[in-house]
Design brief:
4 strands, two-stranded antiparallel ribbon
Length: about 350
């Protein structure tokens, strides 16, 4: 059992195994027990399940605090809350994608689940590569920091431009080079359908296209969120676990937020300030504080204050606002049956 104590990316192997066991257990419980059958999730159930995931994430942070110290514990919480807040933008995009492809709510949860599984793997690869690069060339952190500051400033002045799913090059490529059914087939991503000669052939469904676009959208969001957490800490375990724990509860929170995401319009400005603040910390620590660490408790406090202010101001400013009209559910995606 000595391998359990081997150091892997700066953390004993048993830490990683414990975290992966928790992720597998939560996913199995969610899919195998709570949502064994396809059904539409109500807002009340969504909020309760979200609260459950939030408690698990906070308790896991307490365990990290106890095992790795207060400094990394606070950095975990800071990364977790930043990723959780950034995921609200993700909710809007996911809603837009599901609406465009006319995916009923009863099938959305399983699609989100498989999307989360893909995210766990893809972000793991991104974080592992990022950690190796930062460990070898520390100055890359300055690039991350400058990118965060620039992204935050851009978010402050950028207008609201919705994602154009129809012009997505991946959707067009798949539609052109794969056989895609015009209709859904339940929760299936691939089915066998008769071709022009009556022979059964394999074909993807619109649910598969939606899943692909959702994962591509997440990769775009990860370009912001992963550098943000690296700017907080270079501990790979903290970067990965805070990221994944925030994402795990996203599929549960989605059904509540999707109905009121228009109420969080002004949160993006708070997130923009958070990105500027997180990016600036590296330059402040290295050039103004002589290499001393920026106080983690101050970093966590400022981050939470900005996010809370953005949420509260949004809810107050948009009180009574009606949900905007998104692309019509009946809009046909650019797919055709035939390879």
């Amino acid at each position: 059992m000595e391998f359990l104590f081997y150091d892997w990316l700066g953390t004993p192997a048993w830490f990683w195994l414990a975290f992966l066991a928790l992720v597998v257990a939560l996913t199995a419980f969610d899919l195998g027990i709570l949502h064994k059958e396809d059904r539409e999730m109500g807002i009340g159930e969504s909020l309760k399940l979200s609260a459950f995931y939030l408690c698990i994430a906070l308790l896991f942070g307490g365990w990290v605090w106890a095992q790795k110290g207060a400094d990394l514990g606070m950095k975990y919480y800071t990364g977790f809350f930043i990723e959780k807040a950034l995921s609200i933008d993700n909710v809007f995009v996911i809603s837009l994608i599901f609406t465009y492809f006319a995916i009923p709510r009863m099938y959305q949860y399983r699609a989100l689940l498989w999307g989360i599984v893909a995210v766990i793997v893809l972000r793991g690869i991104m974080i592992a590569v990022g950690a190796a690069v930062v460990q070898e060339w520390y100055w890359v952190l300055y690039i991350f920091a400058a990118f965060l500051v620039a992204t935050g400033i851009k978010m402050l002045f950028a207008g609201d431009k919705p994602m154009d799913v129809a012009s997505n090059p991946v959707v067009r490529f798949i539609s052109k080079h794969m056989r895609v059914t015009p209709d859904l087939h339940g929760q299936k991503f691939f089915v066998r359908v008769p071709d022009a000669t009556g022979k059964l052939v394999g074909a993807a469904t619109p649910l598969f296209l939606a899943l692909v676009v959702i994962n591509l959208a997440d990769l775009v969001f990860a370009v912001d969120s992963v550098p943000a957490i690296f700017a907080i800490t270079t501990d790979t375990f903290i970067v990965y676990t805070s990221n994944i724990m925030a994402i795990l509860g996203l599929r549960a929170l989605y059904f509540a937020l999707a109905a009121m995401v228009h109420r969080f319009h002004y949160l993006k400005y708070a997130l923009a300030l958070v990105l500027v603040f997180i990016g600036s910390k590296i330059f402040v620590s290295d050039f103004l504080l002589g290499g001393d660490k920026f106080p983690p408790v101050l970093s966590l406090g400022v981050t939470l204050a900005m996010i809370a202010a953005g949420i509260l101001y949004s809810l107050w400013k948009t009180r009574g606002a009606e949900e905007p009209d998104w692309p019509a559910t009946g809009q046909s995606p650019p797919i055709k049956e035939g390879a």
